[in-house]
Fold PHT4 protein.
Amino acid sequence: MEGAFGLSLTIAACHARRQCRSKASHRFRRVWAATAVETRVESPPVEAAQNEPPNEPSERNLIVLLVAAAYVIWQMDKVNMSVAILPMAEQMGWDSADEGVIQSSIFWGYAATQIIGGFLATRYGGKRVLLFAVTLWSCATMLAPVAASMSTQVFIASRVLVGIGEGLAPAAGLRMVATWVPESERSRAVSTLGSGKTSGSIAGLLLAPVVINSLGWQAMFYSFGFLGLLWAGVWLLKGKDREGSSTVASEEAIPWLSILRTPQLWGVVVAHFCHDWGGYALLTWTPTYLNQALGYNLEGSSEITVIPSVCAVAVAAGSGILADSLHGNGMDLTSVRKLFQSIGFFIPCLMLGLLATTGNVEPGSLMPIVLLTFGIASGACSYAGLYSSHADLSAKYSALVNAISTTFGALAGVCSNAYAGYMLKATGSWSQAIFLPSIALYVVGWAVYISLYDATPVDWDAQDEK
């Protein structure tokens, strides 16, 4: 990941700067939309001043880079199937509907363990949860060839197991960032993780066809799984939770009701679902689209799919730096998040809309590739938008916020891939299968996020006591 992130995190000490509101103000603000309990808290700190991230840039940078490295491997083990599906489908006799089920199976497990991962990371910290997650999905990846030799159903079960492991990771990774990195640097840190995910797509899409053509698709699963186990060994030695960071003791109740009735949270959740519907559909089906619609072979489709991912790394890095700069120069954090999320929705909408109107394209046509590149790359602005929003609301409960939100994002992956496979088999139309549904959901996600999201930190513990 060394060259993928291009970010130098120069960390400044974070100072407590909020004051508690008066009791009268609390009573007045408890009404939301005339019916719901108000959850915005104007000023109380989420954690005590002494628990703010310390000024330890070298140690903090190492943690962020190691977490981002896990994200690289996570995404490699997710996109590898989008390449391997081509030779495997030919060998196994799978049709488009079968491919849709297989492509979506990883998201079944991914969705199932998000809340569990958030709970465990909140209770016990991010290090142990992330270590277990990477070890689990890496072992499951290495079991895939054996599972495929038994039956399609057993292979699907192995992919579900990969998803179970991957589902534990996002909350643990975000908790590490939320507790180690101060607000003034958070957009850059989250964008670093986003660059890690995108770099994983690049690495997976470039390496998978090479390994498959040289050694067979089985070797791809073995080698990718081994890489995850190698990372786990490094993390065991070098990773650690920040000393003094808040965790929830086993006897301490988690304020679930206060969290779940927060309007800001649901603004993030809906935006996450809508954004990931298109994001995951494009991630998993682009190589097949390039192969079937534009006539590229296995290596050619994978190499071209890398182009949007390379651009997305640059966009994620640039958006994170620019977001922190705007916030540092006086723009309030809510406006920063909404600005970048608006870009992350509307440019992809425009590009996919143009792609949907092109109709049948000539094999080897350049225009669809250009439109896909701009659409996918601009979506990376979301790392300075909704994907940074989880940590804004609460550092202490960031893992749970991320878990709730990512559960819905994973469900979007399940639905979008299954739907795309079904529609391709029924109609053969890429517009109906992927482009038009993604546009519709992007618009819905933008409207809800703009309406509900507010980056003001929330003290859920205080609300629960009331």
Q: What stands out?
A: The chain has one domain: 60-241+250-457. The beta strands are 31-32, 36-37. Residues 60-241+250-457 form a domain with the Growth Hormone; Chain: A; fold (CATH 1.20.1250.20).
